[in-house]
Structures are given as structure tokens and as C-alpha cells.
């Protein structure tokens, strides 16, 4: 989980009533009629008056830098290319610059200013990802220019130069800015002072993340309800003392922020927060036992002002779901049109080679465990879809001559583009298994059904990592599920494209295709 997703300020905006004051009996409770009409007990005023917002603890300068650096470079690069091409600046070109800025702000990744541990020097985003994002910016701007007939503003030479020059300039600026930010942060005098209550695994990790981030505060150390001997992961220099002393320490040392990294069921958290509210420190709750769950797409969400922590969620929600669906439909429509003659030829070959239907339909589980029919070109002499389904094996005697070629080249999967258009499948996602296999493995592998939080795919992360073909042992299936859950946790359109490209490269030489 990212650092800024763990830390959320906890404001408590309650309303107080005067006990024993006769006037309070005459004050009408404006919320009472609504609550009683709904048949609910009266809730505390704090719940109704408190609204939670998602935020970050990064400094404003770092946030501003991340948001404007890429778009500003794109606009500056366009201005240079226009000037070099002899174009004159006007209100129209300034408006074009604003469009470029807005498009770049939405599509370009931001530089990662963290200090990576153990001397790692990974540059984020990578050049390949940046080039893909930049191609999206350029394509959208080109569409706007052609649609609004603005070709008089930008020459072809300027556009071409802008497209090729900007990505390397962006990468150079990102690399330089990241290094300068790390250098400046390391030498900037620490202003904010913070402590962590709870020498737990999460508390230790939180302190490490502070050191890696652009956060400029000064970490004073740990407090805990336990004794020092029961927290071996904390060095003596970072150990301050028992929680009974924390309030006095916060006042005395002018602590700016307190991070409570205790298990969420700890009964003393409420009393601790109540005591700390008598100080000026900001208070953050970082549940220490949240990572004991098998997290899938963990994130903090806001439900009409009420905070919720998603510990198992689909990555395809909101605009992410729309973007993936639009790309799936576009690719599937283009694929059906281009591969149409080939599919007709395959259908004829199947009919001439063996008796039986052209298409093989099998019941499988799709999104949210919904039962779907998956289409394939028939490659065997049988069409099993019952209580006993035998997976294909190498040199399987049930495979036809045409079917052997189709399976080796994966052409038998082409009809699944119809499943994509139908909305039952996606191009990339966990491969669907036969219903009988699902019912068997869901009892043997923990978290097996989580893979159904997305649409099944024609290809997937497990398949491009060598886990294609027969799963004749439980260990093979468990490894496949691990890759499927990795895909859910790390999903992005860039990852989908990477999987598609790897599929194309390995499909013709995959020894597991049979």
C-alpha cells in the first residue's frame, strides 16, 4: 500500500450538550424527526457533521512539481518546435498550448521522488511507458487539430519534431528533477517533528518509507505499550519509551504529528487519541494488522464523506473499467474484421477434417462468478462440458490433425473475440477454467475465487510467465493463481499492453501449447 494511502487525518467534529441545563430540554433536535421516520435510532452528532477527505502528507512544492513538470515541458517543447518552424505565436497557439497542458496532465505519469532503498536506481516512469503515454497525448492533440481544422496553426514539420523530441527531453528532466529533489530534501533542515506509536512491523515500515519519501520531517522515535525487549526490530536510538509518557513528550518536544501504528482492535487507542487531542499534534491512524489480510487492490475510499478501507476490490472500477472496456471493444472489432477470412478458412478445414461442430462451447465462470459460455474452434473429437472434464495433454489422442495445428498456434482461441464483444471476456485477464475445475480448486486454494473480480481473458499474466497448458498438479494451479492475483494487484493499461506484446512474441514457440 502506498504511503499516502495509509495516512489519513482523523478530525473529530462533535457537538456538545450541557448536562443538567434546563434550556437544553427546550432545544429541538432537528435531525430527530428524520431518523425516527426512517425507523433508526438517533446517531451521534459527530457522525452527521464529520466529512472525511482523502489527501497526502507530501509538501506543496513536491505536489506542484509532480503535477506541472511534465505538462510544462510538453508546452515548452511545442513552443520551441513552433518557433524553429517559423510559426508566429498568437492567441490561437496559446489556446493550443493550454490543451496540450491539460492533456499531458491527465495522461503523463509523474516522476517518482522517493529515495529507493539499497542503492536501487530505478527510473519511474520507464521510457517505454512514457513513450506510450506521450503517443496518447499526441494522438488526441492531432485529432483535435484535424477535427477543428487548426492545421494552419501547426506545420507538419513542427508536429513531427515535437513528437520525437519531447519524450527524451521529458526523461532527462524527470531524471534531473528526481535527483535534485532528493538532494534538496536531504539537505533541507527538518521542520516537522513526528513520532510513531507502535513498534510493529507496519510502524517500522512506515519509518523506512519516511526516509525514502520527499517528506522533510524529523523522526524522533517510537513509543509502545510493550517493553523495549519485546520490540527487537527497533534500535535503541529510536526507542523513546512507554505510551504512558507519550502525551507529556508530545507537549515538551513540540511534536507536530503522531502516527498510531497499532492493531485496530487495540482497546486503548480510543483513550490514547482522547489524551492526544489535548495537544496541537496532528493524529494519524495506520492500522498495524491490516496486512494480515490477503489484500487485493487495497485503497482508502470515501463514500459520501465516510471513510472506508477497501481490502479486496476489483481494479476495474469507474473510469478504469470504461477505459479497459473501450480498448477491448476496439481491439475485438478490429480483430474480427481482419481475421474474418482466416476464421472462415479454419471453419471449413475443421468440417473437412472431422465430424462435429465447428465451435466448441464450454461453461466457465466469468466476472463475479457468473456462468458464461466460452467459444473456441473445436480441436478435438470430443466436446466435454459436464461433471468430468479431462485437460488436454501433450500428444493427446483426442486432438484432430487440424486441431493440433490450431492449438499449437493458438488460433483455436480466435472465436473468443466474440466473447469480448459480448462483454463476457477481456483480451487480458485470468484465464477461465471449466466449471468442474473451478469447484474443485476453490476448495483447495485460498483466495481462488478472487480472480473472478475481473473479466477472464484470452491471455493473462500467468500464461506469459510460462504457466500455460495443463495444470496436472496442485502446485501448478497454485502458482497460476498467484500470478492472477499479482495481475489484479498491479493492473494498468500498460500492463495489459505488455502482456499482449509478450503473448504475440511467445505464442508460436511456446512448448506448452498442445
Write up what this structure looks like:
The chain has a 5-stranded parallel beta sheet, sandwiched between helices. It has a two-stranded antiparallel sheet with strand order 6-7. A two-stranded antiparallel ribbon has the order 8-9. The protein folds into 3 domains: 3-15 and 40-51 and 189-300, Rossmann fold (3-Layer(aba) Sandwich); 60-187, no CATH class; 319-509, no CATH class. The protein has 514 residues and is of the alpha/beta class. It has 17 helices and 11 strands. Helices cover 45% and strands 11% of the residues. Helix 15 links the parallel strand 10 (426-428) and strand 11 (457-459).
Helicity range: 40-55%
Indicate the low-confidence ranges by residue numbers. Answer: 1-43, 117-122
Total tally of structural domains? 3
Structural class: alpha/beta
What is the end-to-end distance?
Answer: 39 Å
Compute the number of helices: 17
The global form is flat
Question: What are its keywords?
Answer:
single chain; 514 residues; alpha/beta; Rossmann fold; five-stranded parallel beta sheet; two-stranded antiparallel ribbon; 17 helices; 11 strands; flat
Amino acid at each position: 500500500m502506498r504511503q499516502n494511502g495509509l495516512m489519513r487525518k482523523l478530525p473529530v467534529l462533535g457537538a456538545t450538550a450541557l448536562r443538567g441545563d434546563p434550556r437544553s430540554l427546550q432545544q429541538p433536535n432537528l435531525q430527530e424527526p428524520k431518523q425516527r421516520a426512517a425507523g433508526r435510532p438517533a446517531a451521534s452528532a459527530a457522525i452527521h457533521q464529520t466529512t472525511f477527505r482523502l489527501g497526502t502528507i507530501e509538501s506543496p512544492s513536491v505536489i506542484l512539481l509532480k503535477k506541472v513538470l511534465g505538462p510544462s515541458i510538453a508546452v515548452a517543447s511545442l513552443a520551441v518546435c513552433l518557433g524553429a518552424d517559423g510559426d508566429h505565436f498568437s492567441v490561437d497557439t496559446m489556446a493550443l498550448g493550454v490543451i496540450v497542458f491539460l492533456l499531458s496532465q491527465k495522461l503523463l505519469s509523474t516522476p517518482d521522488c522517493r529515495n529507493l532503498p539499497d542503492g536501487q536506481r530505478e527510473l519511474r516512469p520507464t521510457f517505454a511507458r512514457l513513450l506510450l503515454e506521450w503517443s496518447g497525448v499526441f494522438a488526441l492533440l492531432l485529432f483535435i487539430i484535424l477535427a477543428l481544422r487548426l492545421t494552419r496553426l501547426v506545420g507538419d514539420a513542427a508536429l513531427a519534431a515535437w513528437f520525437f523530441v519531447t519524450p527524451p527531453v521529458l526523461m532527462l528532466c524527470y531524471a534531473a528533477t528526481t535527483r535534485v529533489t532528493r538532494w534538496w530534501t536531504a539537505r533541507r533542515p527538518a521542520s516537522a517533528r513526528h513520532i510513531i506509536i507502535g513498534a510493529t512491523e507496519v510502524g517500522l515500515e512506515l519509518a523506512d518509507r519516511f526516509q525514502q519519501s520527499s517528506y522533510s520531517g524529523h523522526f524522533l522515535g517510537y513509543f509502545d505499550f510493550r517493553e523495549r525487549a519485546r520490540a527487537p526490530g527497533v534500535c535503541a536510538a529510536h526507542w523513546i519509551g512507554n505510551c504512558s509518557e507519550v502525551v507529556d513528550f508530545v507537549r515538551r518536544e513540540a511534536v507536530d504529528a503522531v502516527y498510531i501504528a497499532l492493531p485496530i482492535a487495540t482497546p486503548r487507542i480510543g483513550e490514547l487519541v482522547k489524551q492526544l487531542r489535548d495537544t496541537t499534534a496532528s493524529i494519524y491512524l495506520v492500522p498495524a494488522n491490516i496486512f494480515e489480510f490477503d489484500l487485493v487492490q487495497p485503497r482508502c475510499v470515501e463514500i459520501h464523506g465516510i471513510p472506508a478501507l477497501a481490502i479486496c476490490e476489483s481494479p476495474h472500477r469507474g473510469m478504469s473499467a470504461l477505459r479497459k472496456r473501450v480498448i477491448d471493444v476496439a481491439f475485438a472489432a478490429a480483430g474480427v474484421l481482419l481475421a474474418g477470412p482466416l476464421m472462415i478458412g479454419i471453419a471449413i478445414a475443421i468440417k473437412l477434417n472431422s465430424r462435429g461442430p465447428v465451435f466448441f462451447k464450454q461453461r466457465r465462470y466469468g466476472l463475479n462468478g457468473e456462468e458464461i459460455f466460452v467459444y473456441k474452434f473445436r480441436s478435438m473429437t470430443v466436446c466435454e462440458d459436464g461433471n468430468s472434464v479431462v485437460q488436454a495433454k501433450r500428444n493427446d489422442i483426442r486432438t484432430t490433425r487440424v486441431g493440433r495445428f490450431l492449438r499449437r498456434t493458438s488460433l483455436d482461441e480466435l472465436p473468443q473475440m466474440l466473447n469480448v464483444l459480448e462483454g463476457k471476456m477481456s483480451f487480458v485477464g485470468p484465464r477461465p477454467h471449466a466449471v468442474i475445475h473451478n469447484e474443485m480448486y476453490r476448495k483447495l486454494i485460498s483466495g481462488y475465487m478472487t480472480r473472478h473480480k475481473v473479466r477472464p481473458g484470452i491471455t493473462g499474466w500467468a500464461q506469459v510467465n510460462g504457466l500455460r497448458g495443463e495444470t496436472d498438479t496442485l502446485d501448478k494451479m497454485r502458482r497460476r493463481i498467484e500470478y492472477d492475483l499479482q495481475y489484479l494487484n498491479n493492473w494498468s493499461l500498460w500492463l495489459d499492453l505488455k502482456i499482449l506484446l509478450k503473448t504475440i512474441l511467445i505464442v508460436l514457440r511456446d512448448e506448452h501449447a498442445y
